[in-house]
Amino acid sequence: MIEATTLLSPADGKELDQALRKVWCLGANVIVGWRALPSGIQLLYLPGHALAEVAKAHPDLLEIHRQVTSDEQFAALIESGCLSTDLSLSFELPEAAAIDELLRHYTITHCRCRAVALFDIVSFSLFSRFQQVAQLNMLTHYINLAASHCQHVGMPIDLSISTTGDGFYAWNRNEGLAADLALYHTTMLALAYNAAARQLAETESQPKLRCGIHFGSHYEYYQAFGGRPDFSGFIVGDVTIDLARQVSAALANQLLIGSHTRHLSDAERIWIDRIGGRNVDTPTFVALAQHGVGKLIGIPLPGGEITGAKAYLTGQQPSANEFSIKKYCVTDKHGLEHRCFNAKFNVRRALGDDIFVGLLDKELDAFDATHLEPEDIWVRFG
How many H-runs (helices) and E-runs (strands) does the chain carry? Predict the structure, then answer.
């Protein structure tokens, strides 16, 4: 059974889960909407083969909020080809967010903008199968450990990962700028754990990584296994494609962050007031991440707990009162261009040497990307 939200009792969650599973029919149908009935719930659904065509006419069909709030909206969905069914339930429905959260396991959900990280093990295919399994296991441990610590200090991280074969995509199931910053800190902490372990013992069980973070749209779905959806979701879309192409050009130990500007919604007023505008580009995002690294202080690492950290994008500093942030372009095999920044994350430990995640500019001679000098960002002060 899919785990119910805290707003549903275990018995109620099981009853609703079984009702949804019948309509879902082993993944043959996709649930696209719902509305409350006096004694249950009315579901709108589509056969999987019809989803793409109907979604063209209803671009918001796959948004996370699925409650149908008007008769006009319901009629439009039925006219477009959606089917409906009424389900009787023995309990009163909880608030809409709880229903939407449970429904996401029985549908496909579109996200307009989310940060996604890609951990890629360098030279993975050259290792024995046993070594590959050991490296994937250690990488999973570092990611989970980082997420656990970030969650413990109050970051809104609800981590999901899916394998790429030689690494993992990782994303935060929570949405919004605060959630993306939490994923960034989780990613940096996981890389720090890996780097610290390699300092202690550079064995073939400790993976050498290259990593990227990018922002953009994607779809989330759950596959059917043995009569129910898998507990782990999968994502596919623009952000994963762009991220994979960027990281494919990265060097061992390199950290890339994609160039992206997100538009904040009215629901994120706290961030709009903080930055004085609605647009958050990648340099602004990293600056916000640096502002939040204080939450990592005190988290244990091999060699001593964290006493400080610095996150930044690399560039030149020709004088004491100015520096640049270099922008790069990775051109993939299809001739498509993917803009990104080279990033660093340095961690100071109480009892050991500093940990350095990422590469400096002087180490990028073999980086298969073009420096877009006219697009560099210059910062002057003093």
Answer: 9, 20
